[in-house]
Amino acid sequence: MPQYDYDLFVIGGGSGGVRASRVAAAHGATVAIAEEYRVGGTCVIRGCVPKKLLVYGAHFAEDLHDARRFGWNVPDCDFDWSVLRDNVLGEVDRLNKAYTETLESHDVEVILERATIAGPHEVTLASGRTVTAKFILIATGATPHVPSCPGHEHGITSNEAFHLDAIPKRILIAGAGYIANEFAGIFNEFGAKVTLINRSDVILRGYDHSIRDRLLQISTMKGIEFRFNADFRGITKNEDGSLTVEMTGHDPITVDCVMFATGRVPNTGDLGLENAGVEWDAKGAIVVDDDSRSTCPSIYAVGDVTNRMQLTPVAIREGQAFADTVFGNKPTRVDYENVPSAVFSHPPMAGVGMTESRARETIGSIAVYTSDFRAMKNVLAGRNERALYKMICDAETGRVVGLHMIGPDAPEILQAAAVAVKAGLTKDAFDQTVALHPSMAEELVLMK
Ligand code: NDP
Q: Which residues does NAD(+) bind (predicted)?
């Protein structure tokens, strides 16, 4: 008789958990996965995927406008939020089903219940059933952080943004990171008056300063208002349903909706970690080693719950590496160097490697090349919006250590260029490549 009910019990059916379950099962393990909400997790259900679809939807506002300059007789168009919302939610349903089917076709048992840790090899399900497993993987992700100011319950987070009954006329977004800037662009294109407030005086801390300054400039030009050094004091609900927000350093503002985009916190509350000696850090993230193993030898954790890099493709790699190492006899570790990332703002930005300031701190002697240009399409459209590409090189070796860009299709272009950066290529290698003309990407090999 086997000693445990399963070889692997996974808690959390998001990107990391699904990949780990599927691969472990393919390596021959008996696997069950518990999910308390919907299989697919943040990325598929209420993150990257529906957000990107909203970004596409929002872009039509500019495309329809610009089309007239390209000779199209475009009548005045209306936007019906409920059509886009329902179509996006329909796509989410389709993906949720596809993810569940993939798990089942790999003989992974899907248990739609909340699960908590009862011991090093024991999990308790919400129904009261206790199951045992040789290994447990925690992949419970993260959840939006909401500041604890008076009236915070009147605000929403990105979770609710996908289900709104209507696009608010005026929205205040708190935070100036990924989610805030992406949704600022989306709501602005849909016609809302957007005000973004942040506790500090920067947007997108961690991105290259020239690129984020350009986003700030273009966003302001598009009508998004920014207020910095503004800490939440409180939200009051008025009789007409509007919300008045008080903040430090600025006048109060009355809006129809407040959205918090002030970071995400690991989902470790009431998970029973203490029952197995699994330690967590000050932010609530599970402490793991390079193999994603927690302080309990039979329990591992991957993805946002470990707060290493809150990115879907990273969680997927962590899940894959865990399954290959523990069940596939193929020890694998995730390489966190030169991970590309993007912000799907309007226009989008993307980057890989070190920012200019980070490179100056770590390397010292660097060479910086830029290309500051107006995309051909924007010129004909009369859109005064400049793209900016920036390449940072080690001055001694010429090796490209960072590449950052903002402009149309920046994420699509950067993904390909990231291969070159990851491969350790030099500025010379870029320069030796003949430009593909006319394209925006050709600026990559023409930087001065
Ligand atoms: P970010 O970490 O990007 O930004 C958080 C913002 O909220 C910052 O502006 C920060 O201010 C502010 N903030 C943080 N804590 C508080 C607080 N206690 N009170 C008030 N303001 C606060 O978080 P997001 O919520 O935008 O996104 C979470 C994560 O999800 C991202 O880090 C990213 O990894 C991932 N994500 C990735 C996407 C992508 O790949 N395109 C898209 C969306 C999310 P300050 O400037 O002072 O730091």
A: 175-182, 263
Asked if residue 441 and residue 423 are part of one domain, the reply reads yes
Q: Could you tell me if residue 224 is inside a domain?
A: yes
In a domain, 401, yes or no: yes
Please give the tally of structural domains in the chain: 3
The Å distance, Cα 262 to ligand 1 centre, comes to 5
Q: Is 381 a domain residue?
A: yes
| Residue 168 forms part of a structural domain | yes
| Whole-prediction pTM | 0.97
The model's pLDDT over 388-421, given as tens digits with 9 standing for 90+, comes to: 999 999 999 999 999 999 999 999 999 999 999 9
User: Both 245 and 274 in a single domain?
Assistant: no
What mean pLDDT do residues 217-236 have? 97
Instruction: Judge if 431 and 307 occupy the same domain.
Output: no
The finding on whether 178 has its CB within 6 A of some atom of ligand 1 is yes
86 and 186 belong to one structural domain: no
Amino acid 416: pLDDT? 97
pLDDT of residue 157: 98
Q: Is the CB of 342 under 6 A from ligand 1?
A: yes
**How far is residue 131's CA from residue 147's CA, in Å, rounded to a whole number?**
37
Looking at the structure, tell me whether residues 100 and 132 fall in a common domain: yes
Those residues with Cβ within 8 angstroms of residue 75's Cβ, 6 or more apart along the chain or in another chain: none
Active-site residue set: 437
Beta strands in 16-129 (DSSP E): 31-34, 108-111, 115-119, 122-125
> Which among 400, 372, 402, 376 has a CA at the least distance from the CA of 387?
372
358-393 residue pLDDT tens: 999 999 999 999 999 999 999 999 999 999 999 999
Which residue CA neighbors atom 3 of ligand 1 most closely? 177
Q: Quick check: CB of 377 below 6 Å from ligand 1?
A: no
Chain centroid to Cα 42, Å, comes to 9
User: What's the alpha-carbon Rg for the chain, to the nearest Å?
Assistant: 24
Per DSSP, 74 falls in state: P
| CATH code where residue 437 lies | 3.30.390.30
The last residue of one of the domains, among 327, 361, 376, is 327
User: Could you list the residue range(s) of the whole structural domain that residue 220 is in?
Assistant: 152-262
Which CATH number does the domain housing residue 163 bear?
3.50.50.60
CA distance 312 to 298: 24
Query: For residue range 137-187, what is the model confidence (pLDDT) as tens digits?
Result: 999 999 999 999 999 999 999 999 999 999 999 999 999 999 999 999 999
In whole numbers, what is the pLDDT of the chain averaged over residues? 97
DSSP 276: G
447 CA to centre of ligand 1 in angstroms: 31
Whether the pLDDT of residue 2 is over 90: the answer is: no
Mutate which of 262, 306, 345 to test ligand 1's pocket (most atoms within 8 Å of Cβ)? 262
Residues 102 and 18 reside in one and the same domain: yes
Same domain, 59 and 95: yes
Among 143, 173, 178, 197, residue to substitute to test ligand 1 (most atoms within 8 Å of Cβ) = 178
Mean pLDDT over 32-57 rounds to 98
Whether ligand 1 lies within 6 angstroms of the CB of 175 is answered as yes
